[in-house]
Each structure stands twice: as C-alpha cells, then as structure tokens.
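chain below, 151 aa
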Amino acid sequence: MVDSDEIKSARRDLGRTLAHAAGHTQHGFAGLVQYGRSSVANTETGRQQPDRAFWVRCDMVLQTGGALVKEYDAIVALARQQRRASALRAAARSTPVLPQADRDDGATDRQSDDARVGLSALAFDLTELSSEPPMTRPSPTRFDPGRYRVS
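prediction:
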C-alpha cells in the first residue's frame, strides 16, 4: 500500500532531525547507532523507513528523552489508522447490500451498515495479523562430540 503524502512528509521530517544532530557526520552517527551510513542518509531523506529499534538507538545517542521514538510511534499509528480506514472504505464498496425483501424483519439499514463495517474491520485486523512474521525462537545448537575428534 502506498503511504499518504502526510505520512511521507512526517517520516521525512523525522529523518531530518538526524541531519541536524549536533556534531555528527552521517558516518560518525551511523557508527554510534550501529547502522550503516547509507541507512542514516536514506532515513534523513525519507527513502528508508527503519524500525523502532533504530529510533530507540537514536534517542539514546542524541539523548532526546524518547522524543524520536514518540514521533515514530505517532507516525506508525497514523499509517495504521489510514490503512484501516482505506480497508473499511474498500470493504464497504465491495460488500453487496441485500434487497429489503431478503433482510431479516427486525434489521434496519443502520444495523446492516454497522454489521458490515464490523465484519470489514475484523477482516482487516485478521489480514494485518497474518502479514506479521511469526514470533519464533532460534533452535538451540546441539553439540555433537563425535564431530570434533582430536587425534
């Protein structure tokens, strides 16, 4: 999904805060946050959208008291809200409206609309959950003493 101009602008503005980090070159700052210089440069221009861990490290190095992470979280929340609204609009357009004769006698137009929006939101939530990578733990390495024989 393509981000709105508002989100792109917010990401670019957040990235620009790195460009104004007092006393640091891109190369020097990249070493401090343990990311590549190109990642820092692309984040400054808005071409790259690093994860929350990047902004946590930037907050620590720049001693901003969590301001960068707070702004990152606000951008993520805005993007999620816009995706949800877009999904609800798409679902509302694609969900057929039953003719009055096929509806339950007690159902009103408002109840049907509420149910359709609720189902659309549920479908979106399930889609969003399924797109997240599963949380897995690395399997422990087993030591095989027969593999390492010393003569």
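Helices lie at 5-19, 26-33, 37-45, 52-62, 67-94, 109-131. The CA atoms of residues 19 and 108 lie 56 Å apart.
thats it, cya
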